[in-house]
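User: Second chain of the day. Same drill as before.
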Amino acid sequence: MDTITSTEQTNKIIIYSTENCKFCHMLKDYLTEKGFTYENVDVGKDAAQADIAREKSGQLGVPVTDINGSIIVGYDTEEIDKLLNIK
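Assistant: Same format as last time:
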């Protein structure tokens, strides 16, 4: 698990991803550009974490993003912006 750090963030963001997922990389780049920190969980390397992502999202695909307990499946910047109050 990788943690990207920034200052003064109160949002807990977990991204369940795989190394070869184009949309996972786009999502991480997007959050970094916006100045948010996140915990990256590579579900391709950790079956237990893959199970957790599947339980949270109800499906097998990545990326799965957990923002303060709200789950987003896929690369959905509109929903991410709403949850993180990005304008």
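Residues 4-8 have pLDDT under 50 and may be disordered.

User: Great, on to the next one.
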